[in-house]
Task: inverse folding
């Protein structure tokens, strides 16, 4: 039977740490389900990019990195308000998986309580590679491109993403 | 064809700056659609007044200021969680419009991306005329009535609005 | 004190019976709140028109019929799933009202239970003037224009409304 | 006729102050409806326990304290986004009640506006008995068990509640 | 450990078949969780009664039938749109249970897929005792009271439930 | 620039007609975005399969048919209640596309009104290849496997899909 792992991220934006995690998980499983979490959000300071834009980022990176796309599933999953139903929702949107990769305490707890095997995600330097840090640098006009794969940097430029984020940080809509 | 503008505000509460904006926009367009945004909220510290109460405020002011009501549409529109669907929702609730007046960065960006012509709203002193400032003054028992049209001050008094806001600020329900 | 009535309709589309009701109610009250119900729906077989389009219809008719717009409030209100909260929602979206005009049994019951005075709506021929009948005639290509005010007929033509409804009836999206 | 009171709390977790309030209210009314508010939330830092878990806590405490369960109704009620519909929702989920016990300003205002008699909840030391304080102590590993009834302490231990809360505080899922 | 069963019904209204089921299940388990399903609905033809009214019915019947209320939990649970998350929601609203009693195919399938032991509900004459049949008889003015416990018949009379249902059947609000 | 098409289906289940459409569209565009519509539904008679299961079907078929997966995007998109916001939602979940393939009248109308180029989907025998027909055959125990790709038939067997659908048709949960 296929060993299939699950990896959940918001990828706002996708960075080199994410890529490193994906490559290492693919050494341990046959297939990987990458969930683009909080799929319904975009155009806010913590979630500047749409699910569609993040899908383009992930696919572009996997191709650039020569990852075999047949081994990867990329699935946007919208959030639900209620943590107690989130695991069931992820199960409903994805192919069956048997192991969950996460360092995030709540995700670990929710999937553990639901009976899944949970493994820590492989090491990368979380101080350096951090979507939060990247969004801050984008907003302040500091260099951020070396923190993401080249294809992501190019795509964000193409959709004028840095200016979108700067605008959003001037003042949020509400 | 009718030149119709759009102006979105929460009007919590409506103040003299809003009136000034509306009067100036009406010099530039034939008709104006005033959207009462975040229509579903009320009774919280940032949104003390119901959509119905705000509707009363706006109508009262327009009458007091001798604005021709036939040139104005006032439409409450509830928020949606998802910024990416908000422009479509506004389009669904309002008569067709061709130009959007806003200084708000996200609103400008969303409508621009959707292909609308966006103009800056006419000048008024945003330090002085600010709903946030007015709510703070109301809460602290400081003078706020000269910042709003007389009809708004009278209406808020009539619905005991200042005490409602003070209560809400003692401690929010959740 | 202002005697203010409430009248709820979906106005899909607005027809001569609606106009007759509004004119008669205005003989009994000082002001009338016209709620455009089920405001969030459009583009389905029972709700072909958006709230914005219905707003245009109602305003146009009132002007055509020389109704004093200062005596009328037109407010789109989205449905809630739960009947038990609907009265509270209508109260939140509208100016205060004291009498409800309806022949609709559930609306009468809900507002009566909530303590409102409810009156039957004035007589008009419901067999002839019926939005359901009009939508059927539109779909079948039969004459429907004499059932609605001239301004409504013209507006529906302008937005290509008959063809929209015909399309929707070919097969619903879901 | 039965005099029935209403008491709303989130009970995250239930503590001795809550018990004291319930016992005192039961001296004044025939029956008490205890609403477990914000019922849909769990697994977040302010709402660590599910509605089901809180139900177990309240029932266990009432039994431990020899409260006559026939005089008490325990009803989980999910929040609605809109304060203006919350009273109607509580009415829909509960048996009829005539008096509301609360010190919370918004709850008092909402029920007062809706025509209910509202009484202050009986005295207890809110500095000491506070769910917020208890959650902080749980998170920091400080003693909290003497602030809650013994049955609550035992139940939280049984469901590993302290560790859940510690995990949630490490970093929230979103 | 406590053997706890789960039994889900809408109880629109509660009838003698329901009572028979509850009594028989209580012969097999220590405690029973009775879920009042579709809790959020009321005032429609298939769901005339609020969750609060149904709660009153169930409690009244259990008392009338001398069921030990300490062995029973009664929990209203609102529906979710998505079947795939419903089991998780029920788990979140109730105390832990280990066996589910149902004859309903979907409920059986959903809980079976989620790993629960599911048992058929004990026999009663479903042709005779049926909420659907009772609602039809109420609507048509036929005798229905002998199909429900005496306390339910009295309560429905007290809240004028038959007339509510008749009104709802004249014409549904939407 | 990449010519990218959009094709929306519910794929309950995916059948040979769908495959034929996809192959023909791929002759006309560089890339195709396949939207798995109504993604949030499952376990009901019209939507028996989860988004995740449908994703497995589509991917399996594309591989079996030697379609270049690099040219295809498969994106589950949940429905929104409001037709007027659906186009905006699809745009938010997908990579940018310029042409929409559909024979469905409402989809055609909505995307046309939003300014997209819409083309009819290539011919296949809709009487024979129809998800509705297939679900009926499944329910009645008639032969359906020759109407779907072999990999879909095998997958449905593996997840016991036929029995799920039969159960759902015995009686729907609500």
Result:
């Amino acid at each position: 039977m296929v060993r299939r792992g699950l990896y959940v991220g918001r990828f706002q934006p996708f960075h080199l740490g994410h890529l490193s995690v994906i490559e290492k998980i693919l050494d341990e499983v046959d297939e990987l389900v990458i969930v683009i979490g909080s799929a319904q959000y975009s155009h806010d300071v913590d979630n500047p990019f749409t699910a569609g834009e993040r899908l383009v980022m992930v696919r572009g990176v996997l191709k650039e990195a020569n990852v075999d796309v047949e081994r990867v599933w990329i699935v946007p999953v919208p959030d639900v308000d209620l943590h107690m139903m989130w695991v069931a929702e992820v199960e409903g949107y994805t192919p069956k998986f048997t192991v969950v990769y996460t360092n995030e305490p709540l995700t670990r707890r929710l999937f553990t309580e639901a009976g899944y095997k949970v493994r820590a995600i492989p090491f990368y330097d979380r101080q350096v590679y951090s979507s939060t840090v990247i969004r801050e640098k984008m907003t302040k006009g500091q260099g951020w491109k070396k923190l993401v794969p080249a294809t992501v940097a190019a795509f964000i430029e193409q959709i004028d993403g840095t200016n979108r984020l700067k605008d959003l940080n001037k003042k949020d809509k509400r």
User: Anything to note?
Assistant: The interface with chain A takes residues 80, 82, 84-85, 87-89, 91-92 of chain E (CB under 8 Å). The first strand of chain E starts at residue 4 and ends at 9. Chain E has seven helices and five strands.
